[in-house]
Each structure stands twice: as C-alpha cells, then as structure tokens.
Design a protein that fits this description.
The complex is a heterodimer of chains A (109) and B (365).
Chain A: H1 2-13, E1 35-38, H2 48-52, E2 58-61, E3 66-69, H3 79-83, E4 89-92, E5 105-108
Antiparallel strand pairs in A: 1-4, 2-3, 3-5
Chain B: H1 3-8, E1 10-15, E2 27-33, E3 36-43, H2 51-55, H3 63-68, H4 75-89, H5 96-124, H6 128-149, E4 158-159, E5 162-163, H7 169-194, H8 197-203, H9 211-216, H10 221-225, H11 256-280, E6 295-304, E7 307-316, E8 321-327, H12 329-340, H13 346-355, H14 360-364
Antiparallel strand pairs in B: 1-2, 2-3, 4-5, 6-7, 7-8
Helix pairs in contact in B: 4-5, 5-6, 5-11, 5-13, 6-7, 7-11
Classes of the chains: A alpha+beta (109), B alpha+beta (365).
C-alpha cells in the first residue's frame, strides 16, 4: 500500500517520459547519417559515387554534365561520401522533409 | 453426436501470417483437438526478397551493406559474418582496434535485440506496461548506437577489412555511462519482472523441450542454451572474443521461462563484455587495405542474438561473388518450435512462438 501511494505521487509530480514534440525536438548526435547533400559547384562529374553506390541511387553523366540522385533508393550508407575525390558530397545529420516519389535531387552545371 | 465424438474431432486453425503477437509473417497451421494443439505445420515464404541473388550482382564491398539489410534487428552481425568470410578468403588481417569495435557494436546489437524481444514477449501475454518499459530501455541503446556509428540500427560501420568509423575516447565514455544506466534499468525492470506471478504463470512449464530434442533438432542460440546445451559460437574467439573473459549462459528447464532467463542473463553478460572490451581496446588503425578480389569458398559462423548464423561465400576472382548463402538462426529453430507446440493450449501458442525469437524476414532473405 505504501509503495502504491509513493508510486502514485512519483508519477503525479514527475516529468512526462515523452518529449512534447513538435515544441521540443530531439537533438541528433553529431555524425548521424540523415540525408545526402552535394555542393554541385565542386563536382567534377567523375561518376565514382554512382559506381560505388550499393543501391544505384545516383546517376552521373559527363555530357551534359548532370548529377541525379533518387532519395527513395538511397540507403544512407555514406559510401559515396567516402569515395568522392573532391569531397563535394556530405551527410547532413537532419532528415529531409516530405518529398514526392518522383522528385529527384539533381544538379547541372 | 456424443461428447466423446465431439472431442475427438480435429480442426485446423491458421495462426498467422497476420497475427497481433507476431512481429513477422510466419504461418503455423495448428491441428487442434478442442483447445489443445496436436500438430503444427509451418508455412513461410511471405517476405522473400531475393537478396542472395542480388548479392551476385553487386561488387563484394557493396554486399557488406546488403548483408546488413538481411535482418533489421541483428544487422551488424550479418555484415560482420560476411566481412569475416571475405577477409579470410583474401587473407586480410583485421586491425585489433577494429575487432574490439566490432565486439562493442555486436554486443550493443545483442542488447537492443534482446530488449526488443523482451517487450514483444510481454506484449504476447498482454503485459503492455512491461512492453513499454523494455522498449524504453532499448531506446538508450539505439541512441548510443546512433551517436557512435551514425545509424540507429543500420550502423553501416562494418565492411571488408575492418570498420569504417572509429569511436573516440569520449564516445567510449558515453557508452560506459549508458551501460551503467542500463544496468540500473535492468535491475529495476527486467530482473524484478522475472519474479512476477503473472509472468511465471504464462511461461513456467510452457513449451518445454528436452536437451535431447534440442540436440537432435539442431536448436541454436538461447533455445539450445535454455536446455543446458552450451552452444555459443563466441567461445571460438572470433573478432576480439578470444581476449575477453566470459562463459556461455545456460539454463536447464527448457521451457519459455528458461529461454527468457537465458536472454535476461545475456543482457548483463553483454554489458560486461562491452565494459571489458572498452577497458582493453588498443589504439591503432581501424581498417586494413583491401586489394584484389575474393577467390575460393568459405563458411563463416557468428553468434547472433538468436543463435548461430552461417555464411557460405564463393568467390571466383572477379569483383562479383559467385554465390552467397545464408543460414539464419531462426531457420534452425523452426523444427524445435514445432516440437514445442503439441500438447499446449491455443492461448499459449503466441508465447511459445515468440520464445524462439522468430525473425522471419532474415530466414527468407
């Protein structure tokens, strides 16, 4: 009986176990693989990222110079980031908002 | 019709593939006599994804990521089993630090897998509060995995030659702090619950198998350990397990309660192994250079949370593998599941099925 009352009091006055989302958002740790980003100005369109990608999510063409990336196929492994010779690919720790299936991130120069 | 004739009539009840207690699609056709199970016939094939065929089309480095995706719970161990196989084919010596990091991540995976299973077992007998508490503990493990590797479940850190990411000294301290916190949580939540009347009512003496049956039907992992069989592949000392001090955990009863006890004691063992690995981890490289392509064939085995996984890898000197074959622990535990069910009530089928910790999507690949 005593432990029951102490439990009730503890639960009544303790903070909730959950986070009041969306007012308070979770801080993602440094280095979380959230989504892939490219600085298209640095890209030399060598196509190494497309070759390394385990899920064939990246398509690169040299002529015309274009870099296309299908977010729905990406498995966020960051293998392309390690392979990029110009270090123009990077992993951002946050997740992207809603995207449409047919939408692709593309870059041309 | 007389009561006698009614009771002798058998009926078949399909249990699954969609059932509230089943996390994954396994169908058991239960031959019932009244409320009692007489026979169980399994049917799998609902989540076949053709990953073994896909592995033949990817280059051997990419297959590490593919192997990781065979299972959504013990993913790191799949990548590790695959990488260990290719490393032995190519005579690559993995740096010591990488081996220790592999042990740390493997044991973190074991923790989160057992806690997930513990919650699901509680859910299967209607103990929703315990389900939430177990998953609350698991959240701390997922957070530390995210902080150390970048992914909550798909760590993506294990690859052929070593690991892709190092854990800093602060990161290791953080892991130790989480281990202490988990130790407290387990004392409060998990261990207390093992003495609970309702939990014992639903698990003690249910789904009992003998040591002989477990041996003959080839049980692996906690199912075999709960019957007193010391089957733990970690004792062979792969990765850094050779340098760590531990003994396989066994129980004698062979029922659902014993299987739960084995996993609960393994939670503490995993914490202990992580602490030992962090205390002994050497400095140095985390990746050995990988040159050439794998040639020849090899079988590797790794102890997963559910038991022993077997990888058969055949390379032909090109960057693509000729064949990859995976035997997952759940596949080995299905025959013993069928031996557990007869004689028990329909209401116990969910608990018994979950007590082998079925992972159907990795069984079907």
């Amino acid at each position: 009986m005593f432990s029951l009352i102490s439990n009730i009091l503890k639960n009544a006055f303790s903070r909730p176990a959950t986070r009041p989302y969306p007012f308070q958002r979770r801080q993602r740790p440094e280095g979380t693989r959230g989504h892939l980003d490219i600085e298209i100005d640095k890209c030399i369109f060598c196509g190494i990222c497309a070759k390394k990608c385990p899920s064939n999510a990246i398509e690169v063409s040299r002529d015309p110079k274009s870099w296309t990336f299908n977010r729905y196929a990406c498995i966020v492994c960051a293998y392309c980031v390690e392979a990029c010779p110009k270090k123009c690919l990077s992993m951002k720790s946050d997740h992207e908002g809603q995207i449409q299936p047919q939408e692709e991130t593309a870059g041309t120069r | 019709m007389s009561t006698q004739a009614m009771s002798n009539r058998r009926s078949v009840i399909p249990f699954g593939p969609q059932h509230p207690v089943l996390p994954e699609p396994l169908q058991l056709r239960l031959v019932m006599e009244d409320e009692k199970v007489v026979e169980a016939l399994p049917a799998i094939g609902y989540v076949h994804r053709g990953l073994e065929k896909l592995a033949e089309q990817k280059d051997f480095q990419q297959v590490a990521f593919l192997a990781e995706r065979i299972c959504g719970i013990c993913s790191f161990q799949h990548a590790m089993a695959y990488s260990m196989g290719v490393e032995s084919l190519m005579n690559i010596t993995v740096p010591d630090r990488a081996n220790y990091l592999r042990v740390i991540w493997t044991e973190l995976h074991r923790l989160h897998s057992h806690l997930l299973w513990f919650g699901l077992l509680a859910d299967s007998f209607g103990f929703e509060n315990l389900f939430m508490q177990a998953w609350r503990c698991r959240e701390a493990v997922l957070d530390i995995m995210e902080a150390t590797s970048g992914g909550r479940i798909m760590l993506g850190t294990c690859c052929v030659g070593g690991v892709r990411k190092d854990i800093s000294a602060e990161g290791l301290d953080q892991v130790l702090r989480v281990c202490d916190q988990l130790h407290n949580d387990f004392d409060k939540v998990v261990t207390q619950v093992m003495n609970d009347y309702s939990v014992k009512q639903r698990t003690v003496g249910i789904g009992t198998v003998t040591r002989q049956q477990a041996h003959e039907l080839g049980a692996v992992g906690p199912v075999a350990k709960a019957c007193g069989l010391e089957r733990d592949h970690r004792v062979t000392g792969y990765a850094a397990y050779g340098q760590l001090d531990f003994k396989p955990i066994t129980e004698q009863a062979g029922d659902c309660y014993a299987r739960t006890q084995v996993r609960v004691r393994e939670l503490y063992q995993s914490l202990d192994l992580i602490r030992q690995a962090i205390a002994k981890i050497p400095a140095g490289d985390i990746m050995a250079p990988v040159k050439g392509n794998p040639t020849g064939e090899i079988v590797t085995r790794v102890e997963q949370p559910r038991g022993e996984v077997i990888y058969y890898i055949k390379g032909n000197g090109t960057k693509n593998l000729e064949r990859l074959r995976v035997r997952t622990p759940t596949f080995a535990n299905v025959p013993i599941l069928l031996a557990m069910l007869p004689g028990y009530q329909l209401a116990d089928v969910g608990v018994i099925t979950l007590s082998i910790d079925p992972c159907i999507s990795c069984t079907e690949r």
